[in-house]
Every structure is written in structure tokens, then in C-alpha cells.
Amino acid sequence: MRWKNWLENNILENKVLLRFFRIDEELLRIGLQGIVEHKLRSFLTMLGIIFGVAAVIAMLAIGEGARRQTLSQIRALGLNNIIIQSSDGEGKPGEKGNILFSDAEALQQILSTIDALAPVIRYETEAFYKTRSKAVKLTGTNARFFKLMNLKVEQGGLFNEWDDEHFQKVCVLGAEVARDLFLAENPLGKLVKLGRLWFRVIGVLAHQPVSTVGASEVNFNRQIFAPLQTLYVRFDRPARDSQLQQLVLHVPDENKIVATARITESVLTRRHQNQKDFKMIVPEQLLRQSAETQRLFNIVMGTIAGISLLVGGIGIMNIMLASVLERTREIGIRRSLGATRKDILSQFLLEAVLLSLIGGLAGIFTGYVLSYGITLLSDWETYVSWWSVALAVGVSAGVGIAFGFFPARKAAELNPIEALRYE
């Protein structure tokens, strides 16, 4: 009774809605009553659509979440950057790379397509403040590095070229380092001990997404940044270590990134006696590869979810055929009272579409719950986009039309005299 009252108040009495979709009120009433009077059968019929739509929503949410996460990681590297890494510790003995300051100067003179270059050196050290300590990566670079890597300041400011040229002992903290060392205390102006030296904190970075460069993870939140020349002069380095661990080149014209990367590789290979003892990472190319991988992933996942919808559609066809057989006498009576074949076709087709749409709406809700559950239980980011919901509704309606048309046509083609005789 509750269902019938709800249908009367919200759908059957909504004349504007019926007129907009050009739906006959009587046909809609018959279709909805057919669903309500056979609740269990209708629910079991809709299960295939519910699970199919939920699978579509969940699979697309997983794919979209992975795409957004990958995009944020790659953007953290700078889409217009070319990153050159020393192969220290990654090659065979005797094949270590050695990126030199002179390499950086040569590239800056030769490459007319770059507008900024940031050299990078890194040290593994311990940071101390009062009684607290934390193992950190101490990164030495110039002032341009922060802009090239899209690093935002949350408190204070950044060091500049003057600090670098005059070997100033100032530093900028990553968000996680600032939290662990200073807790709720304001770190600006405080002194932290890095190795054997004291540095003054002049800034704190906002939280940054974790990214991947090559086979290693880059987490700027766990790093401390200081002027490159300060670290190079004041910190001891093993004799066999590369002068620089990294060079970051910025190419303002994205159409020239690939060509610049080729020239860079050629110049460095020639300067290193025809040995490629370095690695090059081009985030823009990584993004293209990621987009292609994501497209294939979505196709595979969409196909799997589509199979579930196909099974649901077959279930609807099966139930509608049984319904036609069960209601043969009703069809004969309606035809004898003046209903046309088009009326009968519309009646059963509308019922099939209603089953699909109701199942589709329930599937959307289930898909949201599944996506949230995946994020909650596996820490895998998911994102339900509006177009995936629109696709799910459209597909569920399409399934109802496609699989409901044959039973509806079969009902419309029944001979009214033979239908009246049917027991």
C-alpha cells in the first residue's frame, strides 16, 4: 500500500513530468502496478541491472581515482620539465654517473628552448630541534627549483640567489618535517641542527603530493631545502659521489619538450665520453603513457561491467516473456476493448524500461557505496564523476529498451481472439 501511495503522489500525479516525456498516464499506471504487485519477481529481475550499474560506477570510480592520483603525481614533477638524474648507486660498479656543474652550464648555454635550470644535490642526515629528531633528506638547490616543481609556501618565504651566493645557513622545511619537529610551535626563525651545522628556518612548504621519479619515491614533505652552494661548501661528500644528483630543466613551449630532451641527451652523452651514465625523465611523456594505460584499463573494466549489464538485460527479457505469457488473457481483453497494438507494445516496453531505470538508480546508490567502501578499506582513491552516473542511467534505460522490445512486440502481435481463449 505504501508503494502505491508513493507512486500516486510522486509519479502518476506529476502531470508536467508525464507531459514532458510524452508518457500515457494509464500505461504508466499499469506498468508500475505490474512491478509493485510482483515485488519479489521485480526485485530479482532488477538485481542484474543493479549489480551491472554498480560495477560500472565502481570500476569507473577506481579508474578515475587512479587517473587523478597519477596526474597529481606527474604534475608534481612539472609537466614542462625535463629531469636528469645521476645513476649513482643504480648501475654496475665503475659505471656511476657524475653530473657536473659544468654540465649544467653547458646545457644553459646550448639549449635556447629552456628558460630555467635548477641543479640539485641531496644528503641523508638527521634534523634536530630541542629533544626531537627526524631522519630527513637535505636538498640543496637554487631559488628557481621551487617554481619548477610547483612547491607552494604555507608559512614564511624561500631563500634567494643572494643566500646561495653568500653561503647562508637558511632552510625551508617540508610539511611533514615541520610537523614532526615543531608540533604546534611556529618554526619560523627557529634554529634546527642539520648534521653538525645550525640552520635558521625561513619558510615551511604546503603539503605536496607524493610522486615517483624513476624507481624511487619523491616526497617533498619529508625534505629540508637549503641553498645549493651552502651545502656543497659546508657538507662533506664522498669522493666518488656525483657533484649533482639531479638537473631540472624547464621548457616553456610544450611542443619543444621532446626535441629538447633529445638534444640534452646527445649533449650529455658526448660530454660523458659517449657513456649514458644518467637517466632522463620527461613527465609530459609519462602523462601520455599513463593516459594510454588508463584508457586500456577503462576499456577492460567497462567490458567486465558491461557483461553484468548484459546478464541483467537477459533477465529482464526472460521475465517479460514470462509476464506476456502470464497476462495473455489480459492482453486479449484490452485489445477487445479497443487497445491498439501500439498501446500493448508501449505498455510492456514501458514496464521493461521502468524495471531497468529503477534498477539503475539502485545500482548508482550501490556503486557509490562500493566506491566509498573501496576507499575506506583499501586506501585506494576513488572518484565518482557525473558522466559515469549519466552513463549508468543511459545504459540502464537502453538495456530496458533493447531487451524489453522483443517481449513487448510479441505481446502486441498476439491475436486478440486467441488471447481471450487462453487459460
UniProtKB/TrEMBL annotation:
One Gene Ontology cellular component term attached to this UniProt record is: plasma membrane
> Domain named ABC3 transporter permease C-terminal: which ranges?
303-416
Quote the protein name from its UniProt record. Answer: Putative ABC transport system permease protein
Outline the extent of the MacB-like periplasmic core domain: 42-258
The keyword Cell membrane appears for this protein: yes
Q: What is its main location?
A: membrane
What are the record keywords, sorted?
Answer: Cell membrane, Membrane, Transmembrane, Transmembrane helix
InterPro entries (alphabetical): ABC3_permease_C, MacB_PCD, Macrolide_Exporter_MacB
Which family does the entry's similarity section mention? Belongs to the ABC-4 integral membrane protein family.
Gene Ontology terms for molecular function = transmembrane transporter activity
Which Pfam families does the protein's record reference? FtsX, MacB_PCD
What kind of membrane protein is this, topologically? Multi-pass membrane protein
- Native organism is Caldithrix abyssi DSM 13497
